[in-house]
């Protein structure tokens, strides 16, 4: 129950991405007077130029892959050749139409979110905002021929949800035509002849996979030993192998020094002196928080060295009246985390029941083919915490699963982690098509501290990919609670 109030709380939200949207919606639902300020459109970059369009592009790539691989299921979508032998079909991808569709879809989702806010009673202001102390935001809005109007909006609680932007390097400045950030890819009218992707983190890996599947020649420049260095090492090895199998050129231990335009493409110079030429280059070298020039330090807000806003587990900043959510904070840069931070901030500010965020329980996904879904502890985090000896794990290769065999899955696995003494499930990794959908049972197990025996006792449909989860849990029955003597 929210606390009893003899006046209407005033909430001002700066930024309309997932964190800001959920904060505004939660505030309105709890009876507050809410104003949301957004400069681009409700949903922010997540909806308009990042997650929604990129995952829509990946869905198109998945469709292309499904058509190309249908022959393994006995489906022949081609006519016989001159000698009666089947001819492999050519899948035509109209990238201009694809990009038009996904941007229109992103715009429609933004409008739906705007309507939801307005129906809830939220005042939405289109403009640029900056803090004016701990309890007010000054907003600059376009005022036609007269220039710019400024409006000062006061609030008892402020929520900063300004998101992030692609990191740019002075030696590889994006031009929107040949050297691109992930926000600029949707302006392409045709499949790049040869796309060089600099950066093998989640964004670089996802786009490299998608464009290779769509038909582009792709070179992935990775400064690390393995692609996806932040992911489970076994999972990353599966993805790198899959990349090479579809014809991607993966250049490991190769740091890019500069990217320049040529007469008809781009030239990427590596630190070791090698050069790579292509038609286009995608710079996927991380992101920066949108925290500059909006009055944060003047308001007394503590920032990290990287410019992110420091927040605690209820999304509160160092200033009691100001909260923050999303990629501008020093939390995990995930839309789901941003949304939870936004709601948590408002519920805490208004005295409603709130559970502090526990990042150990957060599910995450890499939308490559196959996908990588993770939740909770893994080998790296256990090792860093010196808890590896206290845990046990078990891995089930996905190709042995009956359902996987039926649909032709050749890569992937399910890996579970549990405490050795109690058998409590503490984490998991799933590498599979639609792993993002399969990880939810593991997320529930981690959130509610289920044991492997409790997971194993649940009935999984036969045949199903989720059966691999119960299989892994059953295999762990004899592992936990038993002291392993070496």
TrEMBL record:
Domain annotation FAD/NAD(P)-binding: ranges: 10-342
Keywords, alphabetical: FAD, Flavoprotein, NAD, Nucleotide-binding, Oxidoreductase
Swiss-Prot/TrEMBL cofactor(s): FAD
EC number(s) from the headed UniProt entry: 1.6.5.2
Tagged with keyword DNA damage: no
Enzyme class at the top of the EC tree: oxidoreductase
Catalytic activity: a quinone + NADH + H(+) = a quinol + NAD(+); a quinone + NADPH + H(+) = a quinol + NADP(+)
Gene Ontology molecular function: flavin adenine dinucleotide binding; NAD(P)H dehydrogenase (quinone) activity
Residues reported to bind NAD(+): 199-206, 286
Residue span, Pyridine nucleotide-disulphide oxidoreductase dimerisation domain: 364-472
Positions that bind FAD: 55, 129, 162-164, 327
Cofactor: how bound: Binds 1 FAD per subunit.
Classification via InterPro entries: FAD/NAD-bd_sf, FAD/NAD-binding_dom, FAD/NAD-linked_Rdtase_dimer_sf, Pyr_nuc-diS_OxRdtase, Pyr_nucl-diS_OxRdtase_dimer
Record-linked SUPFAM superfamilies: FAD/NAD(P)-binding domain, FAD/NAD-linked reductases, dimerisation (C-terminal) domain
Subunit annotation: Homotetramer.
Family (UniProt): Belongs to the class-I pyridine nucleotide-disulfide oxidoreductase family.
Protein name in the entry: NAD(P)H dehydrogenase (quinone)
